[in-house]
Amino acid sequence: MSRPRIVCVVGTRPDAIKSAPVVLELKKWEAVETVLVATGQHREMLDQALDTFGLKPDHDLAIMKHGQSLAEITTRCLEGLDRLFTQSPPDYVIAQGDTTTTFCSSLAAFYRRIPFGHVEAGLRTPTVDDPFPEEFNRRASGLIATHHFAPTAWAAKNLLNEGKDTATVFVTGNTGIDAVLAVAEREPQTWLSDHPHDVILLTTHRRENWGQPQQRIAEAAREIIDAHPDLRLVVPMHRNPQVRELLQRVLGNHPRVDLIEPPEYPKFVKLMQRSKLILTDSGGVQEEAPAFGIPVLVLRETTERPEGVDVGTARLVGTDKELIIKTANELFSNPEAYDRMARAESPYGDGKAAARVRSVVLSSLRIETEQVKMWA
Ligand code: UD1
Ligand code: UDP
Question: To the nearest 10°, the Cα dihedral for 102, 46, 39, 110?
Fold first, then answer.
């Protein structure tokens, strides 16, 4: 008799990083066949993230084009996944988060009536178009999901408030915390350790920040660096040409600004640990930095991750240039305010989320497995 086939779908860098612990966990169980499918929504950044975990996709749809539109990603992912699901029907499909790859995985599974497990379920903002298009993607994936793996109690509550059946909602912690803790432990090298300056780390890539908001973010970062000769700004540039062009224009040719190619995940983790302050519009970075006690300024108008703001590790500063500068300066001049942020406890997970996901998925396929107590 053939083994139940579980298909895990990834497309972007964060999909790979947050799905890797789940894929590796499932692969330990020989009673199921675990298949890794890449849509290739990202190329270099996806491959780089998968390499970190020694993972190679069993199938790769290789859909990425420069300047791809949301409709193009959606069409190509959906057609490619449907073709695969027809050739070798899965018994269960898993994807994480809020990317267009994730939304298409849920839809492709729904159309073929295959159970779908949504990892990092239940994050919400009040408006469906902010962040764009991620808020739509995760709400739509949640509409279809058989199991909702909520990273926190707050995310689970959002799902229950929407009327999801309690028996389908599980608080697992975020699988990204499994990944970051494992990688931080195994990477011995502290990147930039010989640098005399304190480091501010900046990442920005969100669609809703393209153009003017990103211009204000970059100008704010430049002014902060100009005002502090003891600081160095390190900016790993997302591969999107539009984002890179702007960063290079505003921040290029500054003696204490390093515009760098995106470091592979372990190096990036060490860079986070080495930073005094992180400025970011990234979802994943917002979750990872508090695990190391690094204060974060969130460069977005809303966040679907309020837990960090609530416990005090993050501050939501949006893209207002003056507010970004003022908040950073306050932290540099007020050690007590800085220490309060650095000491707050990380609210996003305990590093055992993937085992919890595995125990629910395998049980639903009637595979005998060790049951793992949920996080909350
Ligand atoms: C996507 C996700 C976003 C996630 C982000 C993580 C959607 C709609 N957006 O946004 O939720 O936060 O990934 O980084 O799912 N590119 C490359 N090489 C790469 C990756 C990207 O050249 O490895 C360039 C291409 O020109 C591509 C462009 O970046 O067309 C944008 O990529 P895309 O996946 O459409 O959007 P992101 O902004 O990366
Ligand atoms: N990351 C990385 N190298 C970089 C920038 C980010 O490995 O140069 C990692 C980061 O630690 C996190 C993930 O990529 O795990 C976040 O990806 P991104 O910010 O692109 O997406 P988001 O989380 O906003 O969807």
Answer: -20
pLDDT in tens, 247-267: 999 999 999 999 999 999 999
- Which ligand 1 atom is at minimum distance from the Cα of 98? 11
Q: Which distant-in-sequence residues (6+ apart) come within 8 Å of 156 by Cβ?
A: 122, 148, 150, 169, 170, 171, 376
pTM: 0.98
Verify whether ligand 1 is closer than 6 Å to residue 18 (CB atom). Answer: no
Q: From the CA of 102, which ligand is nearest?
A: 1
How many A from CA of 234 to the centre of ligand 2? 14
**Both tokens of residue 360?**
């629910």
The pLDDT tens digits for 88-136 are 999 999 999 999 999 999 999 999 999 999 999 999 999 999 999 999 9
Using the mean position of ligand 2's atoms as its centre, give its distance from the Cα of residue 135 in Å: 18
**CA–CA distance, 76 with 178 (Å, rounded to integer):** 31
Q: Whose CA is nearest to atom 3 of ligand 1?
A: 99
Ramachandran assignment for 262, one of left (phi > 0), alpha (psi -120 to 50 degrees), beta (any other): beta
Q: Find the catalytic residue in 15, 25, 120, 304.
A: 120
Catalytic (active site) residue 222: no
Q: Which of these, 107, 254, 276, 302, lies nearest to 195 by C-alpha position?
A: 276
Amino acid type, 33: E
